[in-house]
Write a structure and sequence with these properties.
With 411 residues, the protein is of the alpha/beta class. Helix 8 links the parallel strand 8 and strand 9. Helix 4 crosses helix 6 and helix 12 crosses helix 13. The N and C termini lie close together (11 Å).
């Protein structure tokens, strides 16, 4: 049965505080408050039996939403306060990193958390920071439009992924690709390695250096605590090609699609990708699905919750980056959110939002699992926008009243 992951965007205060403390993203006291609140959240999630918690990688968010420029550090920090909860990212933007450095850092955090780390990967869609940080890699953010920039982004994503996996699973690493060589230069090697005779030849991995002192390969240390490496996730998969690639590579996609017809199509693409590599998986096996959950008394309560906690994200952020497409119904044309249509209606009608009293949430979840069985339920949980007490009550209610009935397991 599915494991529940809380997708939490580290948010500094509510909208009123963001305005009063502008720019709240640079307010040191507010960030300390954010860290303290996240500690409380992960401790509660740990005790309640949630499987994992994950954050994003984004930089330069002065507005206060998604303050998460170093998610691996946040994983490590919060992991100190939990015993069972797993920590991860959805996801690390691979084209923004050197693959060997990232492979090393992931392996070390995996050791420090003793295997309670999972690794999410993303291509990156925010030009404000990605175009700056990635300039030395000659890559930018992407809108998945199949243009030159998109192709370059995908090239670096897939190459960095390939290098990281090889670094984790091989004692000796040589690689030559379109943008990266190990060693560099690949053909000539790195000449005149001083401790060849005294240290590397007698103690290193055979083949790292030759008798003339030329580096011919490298060995990335340490190897991960988890063998062969931490579990890999793809952040917010929404295209058939992405799901097919995840199936080919045995990477868990977290599907961002509301309408169940779209979800089922993407899950079938994952199956096709797996089958092309000789893996037979059941429908939904190996996949995750993104949803949002609220316990509400009536429609007025639902509309109020959406206005306060969802609209700032969907209308103020997701919509402007094209994520509203995840809510488009099959065959629908024109704007996704129609004139006069409340965001709550769209979220409910597209099945992106599960809401109601306990019994209604159970019924909707049962329908979802019957149509689209999954291994992971990724809960888009807007901690920070949702007041502390209300958020903790919601998590407790779901953990105690819903999870046991559906076998939403932590182990």
């Amino acid at each position: 049965m599915p494991k529940v992951i809380l997708q939490v965007y580290p948010t500094a205060g509510n909208l009123e505080q963001m305005q009063a403390r502008r720019p709240i993203g640079r307010d040191a006291d507010t960030y300390q408050e954010l860290l303290e609140s996240l500690v409380e959240l992960v401790q509660a999630a740990d005790e309640l039996g949630y499987w994992g918690i994950t954050h994003v990688e984004h930089h330069m968010h002065s507005e206060g939403l998604e303050i998460s420029p170093a998610p691996l550090l946040l994983n490590l920090y919060l992991g100190r306060y939990t015993k069972r909860l797993r920590h991860g990212q959805l996801g690390l933007v691979l084209p923004a990193h050197d693959p060997l450095r990232l492979a090393e850092e992931i392996a070390i955090v995996d050791h420090m958390l003793k295997g309670r780390l999972f690794v999410g990967m993303a291509r990156g869609y925010q030009a404000r920071w990605q175009n700056i940080l990635c300039q030395r890699f000659n890559v930018t953010s992407t809108t998945s439009d199949q243009g030159d920039a998109d192709q370059r982004n995908r090239l670096l994503f897939e190459e960095n992924y390939k290098i990281m996996k090889a670094a984790w699973t091989n004692d000796l690493l040589r690689y030559k690709g379109p943008t990266y060589e190990i060693p560099f230069p690949y053909e000539e090697g790195i000449k005149n390695w001083p401790p060849t005779q005294t240290t590397t030849l007698p103690y290193g991995v055979p083949g790292e250096v030759d008798a003339d002192g030329t580096v011919r390969a490298v060995s990335i240390v340490p190897s991960p605590y988890t063998k062969p490496h931490p579990q890999l996730f793809q952040a917010f998969g929404a295209s058939p090609r992405t799901l097919e690639w995840c199936g080919e590579e045995d990477v868990t996609p977290t599907i961002l699609a509301g309408p169940i017809e779209n979800v089922k199509h993407l899950m079938s693409m994952y199956q096709q990708g797996a089958a092309s590599k000789g893996r037979s998986v059941a429908f939904g096996q190996g996949t995750g699905l993104c949803r949002t959950i609220y316990f509400t008394a009536d429609d007025a309560d639902l509309y109020s919750a959406v206005e306060r906690y969802e609209a700032p994200v969907w209308n103020g952020w997701y919509r402007l980056f094209g994520f509203m497409e995840a809510l488009r119904l099959p065959g629908e044309e024109g704007p996704v959110l129609k004139p006069g249509e409340h965001l709550a209606e769209r979220l409910v009608n597209s099945k992106q939002l599960i809401a109601g009293n306990v019994d209604e949430v159970k019924r909707q979840l049962e329908e979802l699992l019957n149509e689209a069985p999954m291994d992971y339920l990724v809960w888009l949980f807007h901690w920070g926008l949702i007041p502390r007490d209300e958020a903790l009550r919601t998590l407790e209610l779901f953990a105690t009243k819903v999870m046991p009935e559906f076998g939403l397991v932590a182990a």
